[in-house]
Amino acid sequence: MPHYSDIQGSADSNGQRLSRLRMRRRWTQQRLATETGYSLSAVKAFEQGRRSLDRPAVILTLCRALDCHPTEITGGPVIPPTSDHDGQEAVAGVAAVRRAILRHGRPARPTEQEVREVDLHDLCKRTNEANRQRASASFTKASRTLPALLRDLQVAAEVSEGDDRRTAFGLLTSAYECAMQYLYKLGHVSDATLATERVMWSAQETGDPLRILAANWYDAGEFLSIGEHDEAGAIIDGALSSISAIRGPGPAAVSLKGAFELKASLNYARAADGKSAEQYWKRAGETAEQLGEDRNDFQLQFGPTNFAIWGVSLPVEMGKGRLAVERAEKVKLPEQYSPERRSHHFIDVGRAHFYNGQREEALGAFLTAERLAPQATRMHAGVRETVGTMIRTQKRGQLAEFGTRLGVV
């Protein structure tokens, strides 16, 4: 059995990809440091894998300087190890989901049998099941469910009329959202962006103002992910203004308002405006208190629990590990919360511990996340980068075994 010091990473780190991008521009490390405002020692540590390059705000700063897309640094799509049979099957299903998304907007050309078999009640059950699979991080099951479901919903939307047509488009919007999340989690970012465009289009066809606003939540996320903070902010501000104009808003509108306030706080956090990020997070807390319950309108979870969870993830975005850990100690996750969402919380907790130099605690949180949602955790870019850094700088038995499951050693 090899000694841990002999184990070498088999997968590229974010730092290695950063180094290649820098050299492609024929820049020195000093030039990159000057262009980004980071120190020369920080750039060297990133490239050598001694410092985890996992925070989106840092990655976006480097991307702006190098004029590249974030995935050129973070890598992707993720290819699971051959030993991860479920992960391999989940990834294998991407092509079929992609084909179904590409057919959007084209004539469905349904057969007579397909037209006869349109059943909106059954399609609603199937759409809910697909979203349940996604929320439980069962990507393998989702990869089997989504292609046929998207096809059947596209047919239903084309052949239905009146209220049935609006209902069909509402279900199609939800299925596209499910596909978008599935593709994003597997690292197929460009396909996920295409799915987001489908979400926007199909939501418009429902004629439901709140449904259309909910689609804008994902649209804002697209701009936020590439560092276009002004564009993301404009979408968020527009949505909040529209919701504020609603007289006597019901719970769904209040929940949507809170979701956009959290999105605004994330946008400011990644733009390195900590004061505004905290301000919008506190606004979301007031909205959660007004709502008084956890809701999942339009697949956008919001309520007191979600507010508390974001209280951990926002400091992580800004590299404030101590504050994140302090807040995490107060978070109580209900059992009915989805495994995917619970696992993401523990991923944030693990990253917070890592920022504090608490590596054993970080590994423990990551392993908890893996138990809750194995595929989602193993394919999470932040987990892979952080664990890779931990292995390169301090190899240990359980850590190395986890790295093997992630495919980073």
Task: Tell me the strand percentage band.
Answer: under 5%
User: What's the overall geometry?
Assistant: globular
Order of helical and strand elements:
HHHHHHHHHHHHHHHHHHHHHHH
Low-confidence stretches: 1-10
- DSSP E strands, number: 0
What does it look like?
The chain has helices at about 15-25, 30-35, 40-50, 55-65, 70-75, 85-90, 95-100, 110-115, 120-135, 140-160, 160-185, 190-205, 210-225, 230-245, 250-270, 275-290, 305-315, 320-330, 340-355, 360-370, 375-380, 380-395, 395-405. The relative contact order is 0.11. Residues about 1-10 have low confidence and may be disordered. α9 (about 120-135) runs parallel beside α11, α13 runs parallel beside α15 and α17 (about 305-315) runs parallel beside α19 (about 340-355). The chain is built from 23 helices and no strands. The chain is globular and about 65 Å long. With about 400 residues, it is an all-alpha fold. The longest helix has 24 residues, at about 160-185. Among the domains are: about 10-75, Orthogonal Bundle (434 Repressor (Amino-terminal Domain)), CATH 1.10.260; about 80-205, no CATH class; about 330-409.
Q: What does this entry show, briefly?
A:
With 409 residues, this protein is mainly α. The chain is 72% helix and 0% strand.
Summarize the SSE layout with pairings.
Elements: H1 14-24, H2 29-36, H3 40-48, H4 56-66, H5 71-74, H6 85-92, H7 94-102, H8 112-116, H9 120-135, H10 139-159, H11 162-185, H12 189-206, H13 209-225, H14 229-244, H15 251-270, H16 274-291, H17 304-317, H18 321-328, H19 339-355, H20 359-372, H21 374-378, H22 381-393, H23 397-406
Helix pairs in contact: 1-3, 2-3, 6-10, 7-10, 9-10, 9-11, 10-11, 11-12, 12-13, 13-14, 13-15, 14-15, 15-16, 15-17, 16-17, 17-18, 17-19, 18-19, 19-20, 22-23
